[in-house]
Specification:
The chain is mainly beta and about 170 residues long. Helices cover about 10% and strands about 55% of the residues. The chain has one domain: Lipocalin (Beta Barrel). The protein has one helix at about 75-90, and strands at about 5-10, 15-20, 20, 30-35, 40-45, 50-55, 60-65, 95-105, 110-115, 120-130, 135-140, 150-155, 160, 165-170.
């Protein structure tokens, strides 16, 4: 793998959060795809000395899509979801990630690092794919591990699952 350093952000890459619903009333809710619209990352792909640093503004999440619901999301629904994320779920806390180790593997890297959401920090690990001039990865996250109470409505009959996915997809120009 060659030596490469890349600055990534919403201008040249996608960073998304995917949530999934559960509960007795899950049919009235939606699985969500949320775009992170304010973030910056530096990724250095240098074999065993590779690294990633990322900072994201949790108040910049925008609803891209609601899938598997009974009816499409309206603009009002999207606004209410954003308000709930900002006021009840993430509470506009800063988000940071710093890799602590990146081991080259077939097709990419095995990444270990420290993810911080507000004052809670936890180790996370995930695989990062590097191929065809792109870097891709899915970071599994359990909300309660970071002191986040998953959103619920209708007296708990509709809930967001505790586990969500952070998805990155970026060209390496």
């Amino acid at each position: 793998m060659s030596t490469n350093s890349h600055a990534l952000g919403p201008q040249n890459a996608a960073l998304q959060v995917k949530t999934y619903r559960e509960g007795m009333a899950q049919k009235v809710g939606h699985d969500l795809v949320l775009d992170v619209t304010r973030w910056a990352a530096q990724i250095s792909l240098n074999g065993a000395t590779s690294s990633i640093m990322l900072e994201a503004d949790s108040s910049s999440l925008e609803v891209r899509q609601g899938v598997n619901g009974v009816k499409p999301l309206s603009d009002k629904d999207k606004g209410e979801i954003k308000k709930s994320i900002d006021e009840k779920v993430l509470r506009k806390q800063p988000i940071r990630f710093r890799s602590t180790a990146m081991q080259p593997k077939d097709g990419g890297y095995s990444v270990q690092g420290e993810l911080s959401i507000g004052s809670e920090s936890r180790p996370v690990s995930f695989d990062l794919g590097v191929s065809g001039g792109r870097v891709t990865g899915i970071v599994p996250l359990v909300q309660r591990d970071f002191g986040i109470k998953p959103y619920s409505a209708m007296m708990g009959a509709l809930k967001v699952r505790d586990d969500v996915e952070i998805v990155v997809d970026a060209p390496l120009a």
